[in-house]
Amino acid sequence: MLEIADLEVAFETRMGHVKVVSDFSLSVARGECVGIVGESGAGKTQALLAVMGLLPRGARVSGSARLQGEELLGRGAGALDEFRGARIAMIFQDPLTALTPHMRVGDQIAEVLVRHRRLSWSAGRERALELLRAVHIADAERRLRQYPHELSGGMRQRVMIAMALACEPDVLIADEPTTALDVTVQAQILALLAELKRTRGMSLVLVTHDLGVIAGLADRVAVMYAGRLVEQGTARAVLKAPRHPYTRALLDSMPRLDVPSSEPLRAIRGQPPDPRALPAGCAFHPRCDLAADLCRSARPRLRPTGDGMVACHRPLGAAAGEEGPTS
């Protein structure tokens, strides 16, 4: 459904040319959920905004992003409008800023259908009501006439999902869909996405820093660090037996019910690197307990390992003395 190859994203700034995404390649099959995880600033959102053509003018994008074989990168805004909303849609991280504040919720959903499906406004509003009910918003008739600020965070997120699903897209990108929501509402939103994926056969790209969310919904996982993919594989393989030390560190930093509450969390030491001054070699080496001289001098490339891929000179579980090739 979606094939991203060798994607690079850079910005021209007063500090010079800053690359925030490099060598990003990812495929998403029909009906599959692929989770993209990593700390804030890893490049997750920038990569997918590039695919959607939503980066600011100062961005420089290269590579390829094909939706069912049709190239998205390099198209003008008018040409992209044939795809965005209709065949590929995105749920943004903050629904309050993503929704138009002076338009009623029903009109915002109906506008998508008027634009892409050529429905009349009355027919669009009727369909908008059906969509609000489909995402389990109570008293949908009243909510349809309200403005975004009159809704709770969970309701606004459901409205975003309804709008994204209005034209039944083939691919849905969800960027941190449960951020700033309480635990109960998070569970409801994730259950809703799982239901829609199952019933509609829709492909889902889920961007998050929460590995618990990934464990419950994703079929495959891609781990990003400093703008690059460092590990890919099935959700079960990556979460049960990670190969990259960064993935292992992310898992170790999560609270667990089987660990005594008196035991402190194992935080990842240091901070993610500044994209303007990435360290030589592997970008993770200043924070990695396994770093060797090779890690400090040569950048590892993503290579097959078992049923996944890893970019590490000293992958976890590797045979003694095994070192990966560089690029």
Give an account of the 3D structure.
This protein has 327 residues and is of the alpha/beta class. The protein folds into two domains: 1-87 and 171-271, P-loop containing nucleotide triphosphate hydrolases (Rossmann fold, 3-Layer(aba) Sandwich), CATH 3.40.50.300; 97-168, no CATH class. 32% of the residues lie in helices and 23% in strands. The strands form two sheets. The protein has an eight-stranded mixed beta sheet with strand order 6-7-8-3-9-10-12-11, with helices on both faces. The chain has a four-stranded antiparallel beta sheet with strand order 2-1-4-5, with helices on one face. Strand 7 (171-175), helix 8 (183-200) and strand 8 form a beta-alpha-beta unit.
What's the main sheet like?
8 strands, mixed
Strand order in space, largest sheet: 6-7-8-3-9-10-12-11
Shape: globular
What's the number of structural domains? Answer: 2
Please report the total strand number as a whole number: 12
Q: In DSSP terms, counting alpha (H) and pi (I) runs of 4 or more, how many helices?
A: 12
Enumerate the spans where pLDDT stays under 50 for 5 or more consecutive residues: none
Kindly name the structural category: alpha/beta
CATH architecture tag of the largest domain: 3-Layer(aba) Sandwich
Order of helices and strands: EEEHEEHEHHHHHEHEHEEHHHEE
Mean pLDDT over all positions: 89
Question: What would the CATH topology of the largest domain be?
Answer: Rossmann fold
CATH superfamily of the largest domain: P-loop containing nucleotide triphosphate hydrolases
Distance between the termini: 29 Å
The top-level CATH class of the largest domain is Alpha Beta
